[in-house]
Amino acid sequence: MAQRDDDTPAGSVDRRSFLKGAAAGAAGAASSIVASTVSAQRAAPARTGIARPSEADARADFVPPEPRPGAQFIRNPGSDYMVDVLKALDFDYVAVNPGSAFEGIHESLINHGGNRKPEILTVLHEEAGAAIAHGYAKAAGKPMMTLMHGTVGLLHASMGLFQAWCDRVPVFAVVGHLRNPTSVVNRPHSAQDMGALVRDFMKVDDEPTNLEVFASIAMRAYTIGRTPPMGPTLLVVDSELQEAPIPESASLSVPRLSMPSIPQGDSAAVREAARLLATAERPLIRTGKLARTPAGWDSLVELAELLQAPVDVGGYGSWQDFPSWHALYGSGGPDYRPDVILGLELNDMTASVRAVRAGGGKTISICSEYLSQGHNIHDFGSYAEVDVAIGGDGEATLPALIEEVRRQSSGSTARARVERGRAIAAAHKAVREREIDDARYGWSSSPISVPRMVAELGRQIQNDDWAIVSGHQFTGNWQRRLLNHDKFHRYNGDCGGFGIGYDTPASVGGALAHREHGRLSIGIVGDGDFNFVGPGALWTAAHHKIPLLLIIHNNRAYHAEVMLVQRTAARRGRGNANVDIGNVITDPAPDYAKIAQGYGVYAEGPIADPAALGPALERALARVRAGEPALLDVISQPR
Amino acid sequence: MSHRAIRLSFVAAVAALAGAASAQPPGEPLAGDAARGRALFADTFNCYACHGFDAQSGERRLVPLNYTQEGFITFVQSSPLPNMPAYPDASAQQLADIYAYIRTIPADAPAVADVPLLRDILERKTRAATP
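Output (structure tokens, whole complex):
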């Protein structure tokens, strides 16, 4: 929009808003806009002191569509073929915040493609779209597509794509690109090298120059994105290629998707790893982002039970991988000193190496990170001197490893394993009792303690097939302790890049994937996280009828930073008096229930009385079970 | 914070507390006022920020507190831990009050057996490790 230099009277109608309806509907000359504006002026009741825009104002504000040389009636636009190719990739959804650089694909999706597979998911911010696709991919086991405008849309999405990169999750991103625009508005939306804006955290990006190449690059981006270590990919699609008719001379066909198998570890190295594990006296399994699918979960349970080895699922950044109430869950207790540590998709084994090396122990790493091409971001782990390093996907390698461990196990080792398992189970029981005992402190306090919040939720959902679709970065480990994560889909993992703004939209994406299975999805998100793109993501859930209970863990602060600034102030002997400045979200305290209601979502809160939480959960969950989103604003303790 | 850093800080904390307890000259403990200690904990020193309003959270759990009053005072005034700054300006009496408050928390908290929600979680079966 062009800017005016003159002063606008206080209280006047914002011209941008006033003209929005007319401008949005216009397809042609500015004169029709002015005519519509005049009609709107006539229809609107007179309001004292409100300046009406003049025709000159309207002309100045109106942004005509980018002229398309040789524009004419087009029966077979290139974007129709593009949609045919995208359909071959079996996307169920595409997250869209509209933009003129991809209006061709947009139109083809809804008309040529019938808005089915993929169906458009309207998002109110591109970062939300990327995060929804991120959460969806982990829960559904397949990527979602997200479609963006040139530069501005891609930059908005960049944070969400970055998180997916760090979490090793595929997101199929497509950005429209209108090259050489003449409009002052569209010039900043074009770039010499569009992909460069996000290349540091894309597995691949490319910009096809014709439709044949589009198909090839689309297939390639999809297969590369889904090959471990997985990650987002970017397809830059020229606007003119979308708009121009398919050349009559073109001989186009939609390629068949040829998905490569997942890379497994070398068989000789797997045999050696199995030998070490089969003969170990105190093996320990440590995991990072291992279980991509339920098969990975099942395989890990099988291996752990075969070896009677404890499974230490990592903290933030790890996926669930293993049942949290399993007797082998944990590190085996305080007295367990492992002699062999198996790392599965653990991208940093340095601590494990240090732990066992002094005692002559061995370490094994099975990890697809060895296959990483390397990028700018320092999210890869430190180099570790492991004894057996296997470059391959952990989940894909587990069946061969299990078979080898079985083959190399003898009757005597089986008896020793049973004894080991009993001791580990006893240690697990003791740890579990202590953790549950910890939950009683602050049980009846207000603000509500985090374990109370989680336990009240657990009581309400114990008969449902539930899924926690947010991370647990800000709720400690209480979710795993107090909720029985007994199935793969119970937990969807953290954001990956440890930047806030992920949890709410990713919860919507996870809930979307679980909807077709009738699962009850719950997100527990911090108030700081929610304030990024959360409200708009809630609207998407309401608009598309995605059932999700969102619990705002509302400590009214960016609380990690309260702690950090307080620590620094104390070190400098300056006291705590000012540490709230810049860190707390009070005065006024946002009313998240009202915000959610404004977006059409059932909501209650703020809830500060722990006795009121159970009934509020019951009411909100009734709405979610009926198929809609709901929000509870819970005033909670800091951590 | 990495797991390694957490573990290191825990080891350092234990060592520091043990050292503090032994370094403190023997003497009569100060009389602590738990009510005043709660206010100091929540408002003056913002201890709640890391440890929760009821001292129930944080990387270094305060309850149950197994250290002597003297050891506690010395530790807080001269903490060597990276994540727990020293509070040299906190007086011994203030810290004795906070100590008294923290010591009341376990007794004030309900037993797990008296909290049906927690009792139910504790009694529910975990998955057996079938070999």
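Chain A has four domains: 15-61, 78-243, 267-434, 439-635.
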